[in-house]
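re: ur msg from earlier - yeah i can do the PLZ complex, just paste it... oh wait u already did. ok heres what im feeding in:
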Amino acid sequence: MTRSNQQLMERRQKAVPRGPFHVTDRFAVRARGARITDAEGTEYIDFTGGIGVVGTAHSHPHVLEAVKRQVDLLIHTCFHVMPYEPYVRLAEELNRRTPGNRAKKTFFCNSGAEAVENAVKVARAYTGRPAVVCFQNAFHGRTLLGMTLTSKVVPYKKGFGPFAPEVYRIPYAYCYRCPFGAPGPEVCSLECAENLRELFATGVDPDSVAALVVEPVLGEGGFVVPPARFLYRIFEICREHGIVVVADEVQTGFGRTGALFACEVMGVVPDLITTAKAMASGFPLSGVTGRAEVLDAPQVGGLGGTYGGNPVSCAAALATLEVIDQEDLCGRAKLLGERVRQRFLRLRDELPVVGEVRGLGAMMAMELVTDRSTKEPATDLTQRLGQYALDHGVVTIKAGTGGNVVRLLPPLCIEEADLERGLDVLEAGLKELSG
Ligand code: PLZ
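and the outut:
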């Protein structure tokens, strides 16, 4: 058996197509807390949390214990054959903990994309309408509807058409690159939100729109935090037209932004919320939670799947919620985010390549540009910074349509010394590579 990273990569190249990408060429063998060890025994600080999935910690002892207990009891019956309590209990928890004080229901699937697909199915069944509105720079998954709703063409859409019909797209409130040239978020008149009215006048009849799907903070699109007023306004316009608002909290959910859900921080209440990623600390699980009357629209048998809401994943999710409570991970997200923000802002003061520092809670990023006045994305520099970080023991991942946003999604349990050490590496790398 071969064991070096390079040998494993050679086998990977032969056995696996090039489509499934990876940001590093190192093979993970084990992970604990906020550290990953590769096939050669090298240890890395994890600034990605498996793309926002490992919110608690790699193999958090409390989650591990719950999973082991569940594996001993029951692994699978299929909820559609013989239901089990962990599914119901998790639904109750989400109904109680998601924003909005009203009757709610939840059902589960396997991936974020599947949750988004299902939220749209539910909205269509409820409204009897076909169309969906989404945003520029959005990411909602790689399935047919998911990739149609996703904005970035390469690599997510190129060559994969025809796409799902009846999908309409408007600009997001990406204030750093405001398409309307507003001088700043405080003084603008929210043309981006008014664009929704414009769309309803010139693009699609609002009476044929079932849902609007929006990330309360853009994830893959570059950790763009819109003004809360923007979300409020588009939610309001949707309400006027009986359109179901779906907040995609797949990346923002479960403590990352300093609250259990980003919508809470933003002070908005969607009709439906999609969840996945950090919900089950690494076990495949996603869900749709929202207004009971909307979720009850599809007929019996209209929703589901073989593995959706698997007992082990549900047990992991219930334990994850307990860890979030017991260790006040929402408070910790705010604290970590503030640390990162201060370090990134210092870098912005020193280095002209740092165009903007932004984020919510522990969902922090810096957008790198070749020139502050043109704001041209520093795509190549961002790529090289990722490689520098890896070579110095820190795993990072980028974001943004220009691939020029360094985003941080560390496990929220990360020790402060590891956070600082990782930030030291990013700082040294950025100084060396941009100097
Ligand atoms: N909605 C907001 O962030 C997944 C994608 C990684 P799945 N983001 C990570 C990649 O390159 O495919 C995501 C998201 C938001 C939906 C999804 C999709 O979630 O679990 O990957 O299907």
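cool cool. The chain has two domains: 5-56+328-434, 63-326. ping me if u need the other ligands too
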